[in-house]
Amino acid sequence: MAIENLLSVTLTQEELTQLDENIKAINNVLSGKCISLTPDERQSYARLGDGNTNWSRKVIKYMGDQPEFTPSFVDPGETMADFETREALIPRFRKLEAIMDMIDDTMLVLGSDVYESNLAYYQNIKLLANQNVNGTKAIYEDLASQFPGGRPRKVSNPDDN
């Protein structure tokens, strides 16, 4: 049974360099402007999502139209700047997220191709080692360590007798 190669793709060194340079450029723009949170920190913050974005937009408009009702500890200008920056980042985030999903899917299928080929090689080496084909015993024993739950069968070597 032939193994189906699900995906055949290569990236040239020039393409990899171009990717690296563009990732570096994005990182340079965002450096000092974006933050990283721990999982616990992420849980501690309120969420502004699709369900309350329009409400927030209305509140910000009211803050601008009737600033006398805004609590003294709230900075309407900073709130508006935060909202506008967040809104500007959303489409870029979605584009990067789509790229990340595409890369993740590609790596998954490439990994599957590699693993299936490797399993076929391993099964062949196992068969050849059991048939005492010269040079296969050491390879089989080395590769069998990947599957510690199974009991690697001792392959007899005619030279051991």
Keywords:
161 residues; mainly alpha; 5 helices
Report how far apart the termini are.
36 Å
Mean pLDDT: 92
Uncertain runs are none
Largest sheet features: none
| Number of helices, counting only DSSP H or I runs of 4 residues or more | 5
Could you spell the SSE succession in H and E letters? HHHHH
Query: Which range best describes the helical content: under 10%, 10-25%, 25-40%, 40-55%, 55-70% or over 70%?
Result: 55-70%
Number of strands: 0
Overall form: elongated
Radius of gyration: 29 Å
Task: Kindly estimate the percentage of residues that lie in beta strands according to DSSP.
Answer: under 5%
Summing up helix and strand content along with how strands pair, one would put the structural category as mainly alpha
Describe the protein.
- The mean pLDDT is 92.
- Helix 3 packs antiparallel against helix 4 and helix 4 runs antiparallel to helix 5.
- The two termini are 36 Å apart.
- This protein has five helices and no strands.
- With 161 residues, it is mainly α.
- The protein is 62% helix and 0% strand.
- The chain has a domain of 111 residues.
Task: Set down the secondary structure blueprint.
Layout: H1 13-30, H2 39-44, H3 53-65, H4 76-130, H5 137-144
Brief overview:
The chain is mostly helical and 161 residues long. The chain has helices at residues 13-30, 39-44, 53-65, 76-130, 137-144.
